[in-house]
Amino acid sequence: MTMFLRPNLSSGVPVYRQLMEQVTEALETGALRPGDSLPGIRPLAEELVINPNTVAKAYRELEHEGIIELRHGAGAFVSATARAKKLTDKLRAGQAIVAAAMEKLRAR
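RE: above sequence
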């Protein structure tokens, strides 16, 4: 799992955001599927040589977005509805772009 969790510490993007983006991308590409487990906070932090609080923050944000579920004592798992939620979010974003383009065309 951690093969794609490799933050770039010099990118200027906060490490927790990079971890979030990498999990999201793995979900979108099918590298992660609903029900898959993510590495534990401490082992992942040790492997990446980052603060465990950084991993915890990424996991909390991913949970807040409905992408993962944190189960006390069991770990972090990809939410059963995560892929559908991400696709729905993309669809809504696309719809907003199309609506804005249509509005511009009507204004001409």
